[in-house]
Structures are given as structure tokens and as C-alpha cells.
Design a protein that fits this description.
The structure holds two protein chains of two kinds. Chain A has two domains: 200 residues, Rossmann fold; 158 residues, Response regulator (Rossmann fold, 3-Layer(aba) Sandwich). By secondary structure, chain A is α/β, with parallel strands linked by helices. A five-stranded parallel beta sheet of chain A has the order 2-1-3-4-5, sandwiched between helices. The longest helix of chain A has 23 residues. Chain A is built from 14 helices and 15 strands. Chain B is an all-alpha fold. Chain B has one domain. Chain B contains eleven helices and two strands; from the N terminus they run ααααββααααααα. The longest helix of chain B has 31 residues. Classes of the chains: A alpha/beta, B mainly alpha. At the A-B interface, β7, α7, α8 and α9 of A face α1, α4, α9 and α10 of B.
Chain lengths: 406, 287
């Protein structure tokens, strides 16, 4: 009897202690990976992004330190309205603290507003529009991997320097395509080149022949593809068919992912120049991560830069939370903490997060290998140039973001 | 003006895919009264079949043009025997829902194994390169697609409208009991017809494999447009679907030139207009 009473007392005391510590140090977080799980971008984000998040949670070691980390994922179907509905439910019902991936610029800009309104967090690793850290910047959003300004700056400048001074654009008809065309046009014109015209095609087009004929008729030296995913691969494949490249024009895939090159095959993709901020075979750190990733990935695929960004972003997020000691639910506060700490991980190297939410790291200009140069599947890129982080992205002096103090 | 000719020709090329696919749909609807929403998925299977023949068995494009439609056609006949035949005589909605569900399952399975970016399939060596027509550079492969699909369309039309086999088939749809009384195995004929329609879809898939990426969603992107083509042409009308297929390809091509942003809606605008003026479609007979 005595034993039982003491056991009850002990139990109550324990519960009180546990309860009070929970009040003082809330260590529960929930991560939401909002991505395209079924459409044209699902290979470069999708299930691979969720896997990257899972790996970041495991590698953080936070669970052993008393943190409870939940992870959910959903398919936004590339529709901003679907995405905002999911995001609203995640914040209100599921108590999600941080949104990862959120590829597709149209979706990202919509979720960006909601995340700001609800004081949540978005680490965007998938969308391209540079507006996320410019006119539309938010104290709750970090743009992690790449953006249209950087792509234009790196690929655009390199091609103009190499003599490609007249351009014609094939542009995906939504926020992303418009931003990429706008940013590239600025770079081309600044470098002394000229844009001869552009044609907007609907998202997810399967036939590009009409658009390619217009590009061919323009006689521009460079045909700039301001689109992504399946649109880019189909355009490249059909450009070969219509003799665009053999006719002396050069294709510029302004945004190409390793999954696209894999899908095209080296025969079609060889010689293309484009920019990424991560490649699995860059150094020992990226190789080690990618080996672990591809062992667990569907089809043994190597990670895309979007998926690598999910891992890298979460690792930094966890570091910030650990430094704060708990209470992860005030979005602005956590993002401020993240901005105040330098970033460092094996995937993107050392970097920083600027006041406007732009993550800074080097950008790499790649060329796709010839089939004879490739040692096997996924051995696709040759590094031909590196732009240091400070020069790769839009300088703060040109920023229209209200968070930047001038 | 030169650009206009080029767009007309490009439209004709796309039109040949619309024609082949809508022809298969028209055959299936006309003979079986099934609205076959799995058509896009079967088209995709045709392209994948060509890819596997090449990458696994080393069998090239030309044999694939025959093997893939037969293989996918057999798959279609199994579907018909095991599922679709139980829906005969029921409302169209049941067939539509069943085939739509089947399409989602087939696409889901392929996407699970092969991802969304697709797989490469090269143009056969014999058809590589192009001709300079003066007003445009015509890839030889595209020219081949137009000629070949036109021949296939006309042969199918001839088979159904002008031969004894076709006459039996049409009779069987009108009055199956009476045709059975003549000693004709009607259920088998229906199964074979479904196989033919599916085979046409798979053939279109093989034809498109060298042009587009072989992707699990390649059919899903196309099927809605093709249904619009069938509705405009008149449900179940063989010749109507062939002509509308080519015509809509051309109209879409011209839209891509004059106002590209509208190029993926123009077909549906036309569909609305046709339905308002002639609800049974351009060549359809009012029931």
C-alpha cells in the first residue's frame, strides 16, 4: 500500500515536472514538404524532397536531445489555389511550423503571402522567381537554392561573352517564365546583346514545333528556354529534330536539372550550358550525401539541387532551433536567428542568409558531357566556371525589398 | 507568309496524332458504346512498349510499330473481357468512370516506377535529318508521321465502312441478337474491336515516342484535347473524327502563330461553339 501511494506520488511529480518543462521549453516541430508529387516537376522535387527532409531529421540528432519532429508531405498539383488550401490547413489544423520545397513560382508566391500572414516559415528550395527576395520578400521566407536572377546572371552572361549576342525566348506562360525572361533580358542587354523576340507557350506543352519554327525564323544566335522540367526536355529534343543546333543556333536551357539531363540522355543533351548550385559529383561532401540519398531513392536517382536544398535548409533550421533552445513557433524570430548564423553544410559549403531572405552560395556553370566522356549513369556534368556567392545573386544595392536597410 | 505555310504543316503533323487517337476513340464508342477514358493511358503504354522493346530486347522502331500495338491491343482485350463487357447495356457513365479509374491506376503505376521526366527514345536512323522546303525545315520523321497516320486512318475507315467484316460489326451494334442468329460470335467481335481501337492508340504512342519524351503523363495531357476532337467531329463518326483531327491540328497550329497563349484553349472554344450550333457534332447523326 505504502509503495503504491509513493508510486502514485512519484508519477504525479514526474508528470508535473514534464508538464512544466514542456511549458518552458516547447520542443515540438512539424515540417511540411509541399511539392509536386505527381506532375511534371515531381522528379526534381516530389518524393525525393520528402526523403531529403527525412534524412535531415535523422542526421540532426535532435530526437536524441528531446525534440519531437513530425514530417508531412502533400501534392500541390502545381495549382496555387490547391497549395494555399493545403498550407492553410497545415498551419491551422496540423500546426506545421515550416514549409519546405514549395516548387513552382506561382505556388511559391501564393504560399509566401499566407506564410507571412500566419507568421510561419518557408524555406523555398524549388521555385525560381527572384521576386521572392525582391519586391515580394518576406521576413518569414528564405529562398535557398537558386533564383532567376542568378540563372540569368551566370548562364546569360557566359553565353553573351562567348559571342551569343542575339536572343529569342521560348517562355513558359506563368510567373516563373516571365521572371526568368525578364531577368535574362536585363543581363543580355547589359552585356551588349539584343533580344529579338519571344513566344509564350502554355505550361506543360508537349509540342514545341510551332514555337521552335518561330525561334528559327528569328535568326537569333541563342534560343533561350525560359521554362523547366518536361517543357524544357521536350523543347530540347524537338529543337534537335528541327535542326536548330545544326543550323548554327545555340540552345540555352536557362533552368535545367540533373533529372532533365538524365531523361534526355547524353546524345541529345550533350554540349548544353546551364547553371546549378549543387551537383552530386562536386566534392567528397556532395558525393557522400548523394550516395546515401540514392541508396534510398526511387530508381537510385541522384539528388537534384532542389532536394539537396531541402536537406541543407533543414540542417540550418535545426541548428538555429538548437541555439534558441526551444519554442520554435514564432516564424519571424526563428528566421531572424537563422539569418544571424552563417550557414555551413557539406552540400552547398559555407554561406550566409541575407536580410532579404536570399541564401548566398556559389553558382556553378556546367556543360553536359559527351556520351564518350561519361563514365556511367548520372555522370553528366563538366564544371566550366564558378561564380562566387557575392557576385552570383542580385546585389542588395539593386534590391526592392523593404527589409533591406539602405 | 512563309511562316504561315510552316505553321499549317506543323498543324497537320499534330493533327495526325489527334486523328489517330480520336479514330480509336470513335471506333470504340461507335461499336461498343464505351467512352474510353483509358485511351490516353493506352497511348502512353504504346510508347513505353516501344521503349522496352528497344532497351531490353534490342528491338528497334520498325518492328515496334507492329509489336507494340498488338501487345497493348491484347492488354486492351483482356480489360474488355474481364471488366468492360459487364457494363454493356448500362449507362455511358459507368464505362466512363471505370475507364477513367483504369487510366489513373495505369498512369500511377508507371509513374511510380519511371518518374515523371520520362525516358529517351531516338529517331530511327532511316528517318533522321530533314528537308529544306524553302519555307521551313521539315524533319523527315514528321513527314513520315503525317503520311503513315493518314494511310492507317484511311485503312481503318475502309475496313469498317466498306468491307463485309465492317458491315457485320456495324450490324452487331445495331442489333446484336439478330446478328447472333446468323451464327456470328458477337462478343468476340466486340472484344476484337476494342483491341483494334486500343491498338490504334498504342500505334500513335509508338509514333510519338521519338518526338516527345516517353513519359507516364504523356497521354493524360493529350486525352482531353482528343475528346474535344471526337465531340466536335460527332461521337462515333469514323470519317468525322479523322477529318476533325487533322483540321483541329491545323487550327491549333495557326493559333500558336497568331496568339500562342490561347493555343491550348482554342480547341475547347471550338467545341463549345459546335455544341451550341450542332449538338451532335459536325458529322454526327442526331439520335
Amino acid at each position: 500500500m505504502k509503495n503504491r501511494i509513493s508510486a502514485v506520488l512519484f508519477g504525479t511529480a514526474l508528470a508535473l515536472v514534464a508538464g512544466s518543462s514542456a511549458l518552458a521549453q516547447d520542443k515540438t516541430i512539424k515540417i511540411g514538404v509541399l511539392t509536386d508529387n505527381s506532375g511534371l516537376y515531381s522528379d526534381l522535387g516530389g518524393a525525393g524532397s520528402t526523403l531529403a527532409a527525412q534524412m535531415a531529421i535523422e542526421d540532426s540528432g535532435l530526437a536524441a536531445k528531446g525534440w519531437k519532429i513530425g514530417l508531412i508531405s502533400a501534392d500541390h498539383q502545381n495549382k496555387p489555389d490547391v497549395a494555399t488550401n493545403i498550407a492553410r490547413q497545415w498551419i491551422d489544423v496540423e500546426k506545421v511550423d515550416i514549409f519546405m520545397d514549395v516548387l513552382n513560382s506561382g505556388v511559391a508566391l501564393a504560399v509566401n503571402n499566407l506564410v507571412k500572414e500566419k507568421n510561419s516559415i518557408m524555406i523555398n528550395t524549388g521555385a525560381a522567381s527572384s521576386d521572392l527576395t525582391n519586391a515580394q520578400c518576406s521576413p518569414n521566407t528564405i529562398h535557398w537554392v537558386y533564383d532567376t536572377y542568378m540563372l540569368a546572371n551566370s548562364t546569360g552572361q557566359a553565353l553573351v561573352k562567348a559571342g551569343g549576342d542575339t536572343w529569342y525566348f521560348l517562355t513558359a506562360d506563368y510567373a516563373f517564365g516571365a521572371a526568368l525572361e525578364r531577368d535574362t533580358t536585363a543581363v543580355v542587354v547589359k552585356a551588349g546583346g539584343k533580344v529579338l523576340g519571344s513566344v509564350k507557350h502554355p505550361l506543360n506543352s508537349s509540342d514545341f514545333s510551332s514555337f521552335l519554327l518561330q525561334a528559327q525564323a528569328s535568326k537569333a544566335k541563342i534560343v533561350g528556354l525560359a521554362n523547366a522540367g518536361g517543357d524544357t526536355t521536350n523543347a530540347i529534343k524537338q529543337a534537335a529534330e528541327f535542326g536548330i543546333v545544326s543550323g548554327g543556333q545555340k540552345l540555352a536551357g536557362l533552368l535545367l536539372f540533373i533529372t532533365d539531363v538524365h531523361a534526355l540522355g547524353l546524345n541529345v543533351a550533350q554540349g548544353l550550358n546551364f547553371t546549378e548550385t549543387f551537383y552530386w559529383d562536386l566534392n567528397d561532401g556532395t558525393r557522400a550525401f548523394s550516395k546515401r540519398f540514392s541508396d534510398r531513392a526511387k530508381n537510385k536517382a541522384e539528388p537534384s539541387m532542389v532536394q539537396a536544398g531541402v536537406y541543407s535548409g533543414l540542417i540550418h533550421y535545426f541548428k538555429a532551433l538548437e541555439a534558441m533552445g526551444g519554442n520554435p513557433h514564432d516564424g519571424i524570430k526563428v528566421v531572424e536567428k537563422m539569418k544571424s548564423m552563417p550557414t555551413d553544410d557539406p552540400l552547398f559549403g559555407k554561406g550566409t542568409i541575407r536580410a532579404d531572405g536570399r541564401k548566398i552560395h556559389p553558382a556553378y556553370l556546367f556543360e553536359v558531357k559527351k556520351p564518350s566522356e561519361s563514365k556511367g549513369p548520372w555522370d553528366y556534368y563538366k564544371l566550366i566556371g564558378t561564380t562566387p556567392g557575392e557576385q552570383a545573386f542580385r546585389p542588395l544595392s539593386e534590391s526592392a525589398c523593404p527589409l533591406v536597410k539602405k | 507568309m512563309q511562316a504561315l505555310y510552316a505553321q499549317l504543316l506543323v498543324g497537320l503533323i499534330n493533327g495526325s496524332f489527334y486523328a489517330l487517337l480520336s479514330l480509336g476513340l470513335a471506333v470504340i464508342f461507335g461499336m461498343l458504346n464505351i467512352i474510353n477514358f483509358a485511351h490516353g493511358a493506352l497511348y502512353m503504354m504504346g510508347a513505353f512498349c516501344a521503349y522496352f522493346l528497344l532497351s531490353v530486347a534490342g528491338i528497334g522502331y520498325w518492328p515496334a510499330l507492329i509489336i507494340a500495338p498488338i501487345a497493348v491491343g491484347i492488354f486492351g482485350m483482356i480489360l474488355e473481357r474481364t471488366m468492360l463487357q459487364w457494363l454493356s447495356g448500362l449507362d455511358h457513365l459507368y464505362g466512363l468512370l471505370l475507364t477513367f479509374g483504369l487510366a489513373l491506376i495505369i498512369q500511377g503505376v508507371f509513374q511510380n516506377y519511371f518518374g515523371s521526366s520520362g525516358l529517351p527514345y531516338a529517331i530511327p536512323d532511316e528517318l533522321k535529318g530533314g528537308m529544306n522546303l524553302g519555307f521551313m525545315f521539315l524533319p523527315i520523321y514528321r513527314g513520315w508521321v503525317v503520311v503513315f497516320s493518314l494511310i492507317v486512318c484511311l485503312l481503318t475507315w475502309y475496313l469498317i465502312e466498306r468491307t463485309r467484316l465492317g458491315a457485320n460489326l456495324r450490324a452487331a451494334t445495331e442489333n446484336p441478337t439478330l446478328v447472333r442468329a446468323f451464327g456470328i460470335n458477337v462478343p468476340r467481335m466486340i472484344t476484337l474491336t476494342y483491341g483494334l481501337g486500343v491498338g490504334l492508340a498504342a500505334l500513335a504512342g509508338v509514333l510519338s515516342a521519338p518526338i516527345n519524351q516517353v513519359r507516364p503523363l504523356m497521354g493524360a495531357d493529350l486525352i482531353i484535347v482528343v475528346f474535344a476532337v471526337v465531340v466536335i467531329g460527332g461521337m462515333g463518326s469514323i470519317l468525322g473524327s479523322i477529318i476533325t483531327g487533322f483540321a483541329l491540328g491545323v487550327i491549333e497550329g495557326l493559333t500558336k502563330y497568331f496568339y500562342p497563349e490561347a493555343s491550348n484553349t482554342v480547341v475547347f472554344v471550338l467545341m463549345v461553339l459546335v455544341l451550341l450550333v450542332k449538338p451532335s457534332g459536325l458529322t454526327g447523326r442526331a439520335n
